[in-house]
Write a structure and sequence with these properties.
Number of strands: 7
Radius of gyration: 18 Å
CATH class: Alpha Beta
Helix content: 40-55%
Number of domains: 1
Structural class: alpha/beta
CATH topology: Rossmann fold
CATH architecture: 3-Layer(aba) Sandwich
CATH superfamily: NAD(P)-binding Rossmann-like Domain
Largest sheet: 7 strands, parallel
Order of helices and strands: HEHEHEHEHEHHEHHE
Shape: globular
């Protein structure tokens, strides 16, 4: 094994890269933005509603000497995504890394959701991922380089109780989309991978009561919930040249809750 591998991991190994992260104003997306900036990337903080929180992320990055911009766009709206990508290209000249993280949750029972609920879930998660890839990929093809990381979920594989059926469907679609895109873009030296977290410490799990949360933790072999940093570190790895021969893969980050 080449010792230089470990030396490079101690350096800002994403220096000069440009990373667009959707849903980056809070939760996992926020931590991804902070870590990639720490590793040297120029970061684009996408948000849809939480402008104040997006500004907080921007300020934290800038206060630490990093470079970042924010952009408001609903990823489910094609025109808004197109405008966002053009804005990033105008400001930074390229997009090396795309992290499709934007998402919502809705744990209701199947018969309690309607067609509008279904469409909203599919549009934000699956169509949003498609929209961002649709407008970013042509730029990556021109560079013959790119790293795309899509956020799925453990429930995409398990269909677990506690996640809405429409949420499970959208996240499962992301895994299928990731594999197909990885196959088609490999010839351009663009990798496409996904993450499948479960029970990460964000506001998205706070709909549970304290008792429900304890019961769920008991089902996890490691007996704890995950942290945002544990997800963002996986993103950083997949976004780097250390992972240049990994594509079409979904990394499970779930403490052993689901194994396949």
């Amino acid at each position: 094994m080449n010792i230089n591998f470990f030396d490079k991991m101690r350096e800002p190994f994403l220096k000069e890269k440009v990373a667009l992260i959707t849903g980056a104003s809070k939760g996992i997306g926020r931590d991804i933005a902070l870590l990639l900036a720490q590793l040297g990337a120029k970061v684009v903080i996408n948000y849809s509603k939480s402008e104040d929180k997006a500004m907080e992320v921007l300020k934290e990055i800038q206060d630490k000497g990093g470079e970042a911009i924010i952009y408001k766009a609903d990823v489910s709206v094609s025109k808004e995504v197109n405008n966002m990508v053009e804005y990033v290209i105008d400001n930074f000249g390229k997009i090396d890394i795309l992290v499709n993280n934007a998402g919502i949750t809705d744990p209701r029972f199947f018969l309690d959701i309607n067609e509008e609920d279904w469409d909203r879930m599919i549009n934000i998660h699956l169509k949003g991922t498609f929209n961002c890839c649709r407008f970013v990929v042509p730029h990556m093809i021109k560079m013959r380089y790119g790293r795309i990381i899509n956020m799925s979920s453990a429930v995409a594989k398990s269909g677990s109780i506690g996640a809405g059926a429409h949420y499970c469907a959208a996240k499962a679609g992301i895994i299928g989309f990731t594999k197909a895109l990885a196959n088609q873009l490999a010839q351009y030296k663009i990798t496409v991978n996904a993450l499948a977290p479960a029970m990460i410490d964000t506001e998205m799990i706070r709909w549970r009561t304290e008792e429900q949360l304890k019961e769920h933790i008991e089902l996890i072999p490691m007996k704890r919930i995950g942290t945002c940093r544990e997800v963002s570190e996986a993103v950083a790895y997949l976004a780097s040249d250390f992972a240049e021969f990994i594509t079409g893969y979904t990394i499970d980050i779930n403490g052993g809750l689901y194994m396949d």
